[in-house]
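User: I'm putting together notes for a lab meeting next week and I want to include a structural view of one of the chains we've been expressing. I don't have a solved structure, so I'd like a prediction I can at least talk through. The sequence is below, exactly as it appears in our construct file.
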Amino acid sequence: MNRYHPLAPGTYTGVSSGYRTPDRPDHRGVDIAANNGTPIYAPTDGTIAYVGIDDDPQGYGSWLVIDSQNQWGLDFTFGHTPPSSFINPHTGEQWKFGDPVHAGEQIAVVGSEGGSSGPHLHFETFGAPGRFGGPDLDPDSTWLKEAKDPRQAPKDNGHTSLVGKLLVDFSAGVPTAAQIQSGGFAGAIRYISDPRAGWMLGKPLRREEADALRARGMVVVSNFQFGKSDWLGGAEQGRRDAERGIQIHREAGGPETAAIYVSVDASPSEEQWNTLVRPYLLAWQERLGKTRMGVYCNYPTIEWALRDGIGTYFWMHNWGSNGRVHPAAHLHQFEIDKQKVGGVGIDRNRILKEQFGQWDGVAADVPTPVVEPAQPQPVTSPSGYPITWYGGPGYDTGHGAYLRIYLHTTENQDWVARAENVANYQAGAQNGSYHYLIDDHHIINTVSTKNTAWGVLSDNRVSVQIAMVGTSGSTETWSGANPNREERPKSREQWLAHTKMLDMVAFVIAKVATEYDIPIERVDIGGVGHNRKGVSSHNNYTYGSRVLRGFKDGTHWDVPDTFPYDVVLAAAKRYAGLPEDPDRFPLPPGHYWGPLDGPTESWSNTFGNEPQSSKDGLKRWQQTIGMPGTSIFDKATKDVATRMQQLWGWPVTGNVYEGEWNEVIHNGWRLPAPEPPRPAVPIEAGPKVHHSKKIKEVTGPGLTDRFGMAATDLGVMARTPSGRILAIFGDTFRGPRVGDGDWRSPVALFSDTKKLDEGIVWSEAAGGDPRYARQLWDYQHDNPFFSTVLPSDVVTIGDTMYLHAMVNKGLGNVVWTEIWKSTDDGQTWQHTGAKFDAGLHRGLAQLWTWDAPGDGWVYVFSTGFQRDKPLILRRVREDRITDRNAYEGWGWKDGAWRWGNEPTPVLERAHSAAKFGEMCLRAIQGKWVLVTFDSSDVGGYDIDVRVFSKITDNLYEAHKSTPLRGVGWGQEGDDAVAQLYGPSIVPGSKLDGGFHIFVSQWKTEGPDKGWPYRVLQFKIPVSSPGFRDDGGVNPHDGR
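Assistant: Thanks for the context. Below is the predicted structure for the 1039-residue chain, given as structure tokens.
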């Protein structure tokens, strides 16, 4: 190779400043004076190692670095060059890192960028490892003294013969085709085998890489080697390896005429040849054909192969060859891992014969056997497999454009663990999740594919996660800690033993790939690095992320490349090819079309993360039932679904489930002509009473234990949009005492009672199971942040119910409060996003009671949850109830009470009660009724009722009565209750008729403490200025 000067003779005047001269000891290069715009040429072949654009204003200004370590062991720096001249003559674009450069090509022009006193080229030379980390060398003695005119560099360095040229092989990474060519190589010998370990980023060869090499006129040679001891597996291993190697060769674009070298990376004895190596290679040759059979081996092995008629091509290594090169060898590997190309360690090989099995070479004169393609096989389960919804694990709402399906293992024991076990753990931990969990028996769906599961760190939003319940390691069961390690992966045979699991994985891959247009093609480590679409694994993402993300994203190594992708993806393609039932319910099992703010099972088609099949399906249902097909879940759809459910006697939610789909699409049901609306059946409160009367116990053994709630308290009530009574209870237990198992809060029951004097009777539970009172939303009691969530009060506004709840860490210690809502008549509840600090308004906005009288406002009385604080009053517009900034206080300021002021206490003096516990506010017959638990130290421990006309009336002047008083145990009566608290007004109560309330009772002392813990119904007298007991008008406050 020749050295070339960076400037052409006659275009420069000489060296204006030398290398490390006495006056400039830190000057690491030479300055060559030339006019602005003088062409700068590449002094030799190499690659662009750095493109600096205005990043060194006091020095180079803008600059280039050429890496010629493979050619000369040198890097070259060109400084003070204008970036506008950094043009690659082959692409017309700006030079980029890794671009190949050829001797004599113009790379830039002379300028005066940065800290320059005039136009010149600052030229530097650096030894290994290069400009960044290597020593600077004197350019004059190192390069310029013997440099020639760059315009004389040959423009075409091709050759008619390849004999004597070099080929490169590598496995730790993938240099670019440009880097390989710039390194002086004629091509590459590439692995068509899976990586044995994660660092083997160069395995296997991919089509993009092969295409790039061939596009530059370089040759490609295929070689199979999973590990050094492949041949120890004998004939059986040879057959398996042949199938895999041929598959990868074809996928990479390898011609059917090209050779595949099969590796014997050892120095075997003749006995090993006869008993192991020979059977292994013969298995390959039976599948591949002798004309394409190549062998990578040493000198003696070539002798034995020729003797036994194995192989046509031979690639010889030096191990055991004793310095000899076999005359039958086509390639010779003469150097191992001493040089790098593109930062990747490489081996060097010399071409010894013109035809050596290269991809575009001439086929050998032996007929290639015709291999009949495998006939398509039927799928194992033509009807697919059932998928069960099992929510709970965490997720992020929405997703990006799906690119890949990632396979995982859960690292549980094979054959033992179940999918539900993993889902339950993830639901509790909330730090990882998958879309699908598959064990050896069935499939569960834990995160909807419309949302993002937490499986592969930075690639989560563009990938679907499928996890197999089991391990990726070779030890299938164990006691104690998981002993498996990456270096001991599960064998192919171990994977294949999970026949049903793998087939279910194939089924789910087909389902997801079809839904989201993901190719059912293998994406290996390199494919992840190149951001290819298809099916991959967490293992391949971990190692591929080095290229994709620029760093290794995590340490997980599941699923290793011993996984039988060929079997699973072939089955997935067969499942994808099955005809679909056009009338199949298009949502996942257990999911439905419902409101946007519903749980993850609810699909509104308005968020933007739903697939087209969901939109098309809902539109079809809408049009078929006889309404406009909008494709979105809107009020009209809810109204139609509600009407359908009412007519069928189903639970009324307004959502469109699979049952609603089947009746309309499969069975042809249509909505009948609408009937005129009927008013809700009124609740009869009974006649007015003059003395308090206990109606009944409404919770406890024999009453609510059929809902799994023998012990409970509170029971805040409202009528649902459909007119039912909904009561929401606090801490609830399966047994009759506090703490008797199955702790839940809040829970809710429905009542269809129409005559309150007969006592409230419960019809069913809310929360999804009418026979069991489920906690209305999932959380773990006594977690590190809080212990329980208690209801304050519930209100109905239009077709939506709102519940204010207190999040507590122990009784009386409120952490925050929040608002939940239900749009399905109280059945299910969703967080509105409204969250209030426990210290809001000096801690007086923790325990709420509220109501909406119909004037567009919701009015709220509140206090602390310590039973030692006064009341404040606030209000909020109905349509802004979840906007925590929209609440305004009723407060005293500048000598007057006004809305919009900071709320000040409206009740705090002792003669009208100074301390408040639970309470209930309702607008009834044009009046306001406020029922409170008076927890005052003096004159308290009772239930007070205040009746007033306007919400801002002076509560000290409001008519007040005390229908229930607290007494000791054994002293109870119709107006006396031991350890009472938690009053709530029963819907349907009247001021001029019967007035009913719930009161809670909890025995907290004594040997039998913990029971009673229940809710009681009382009918009480209520007097007011407008409704006196004697029928007259009361002119003043009275008690």
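A couple of points you could mention at the meeting. The longest helix spans residues 270-288. Confidence is low (pLDDT under 50) at residues 363-375, 1025-1039.

User: Perfect, that's what I needed.
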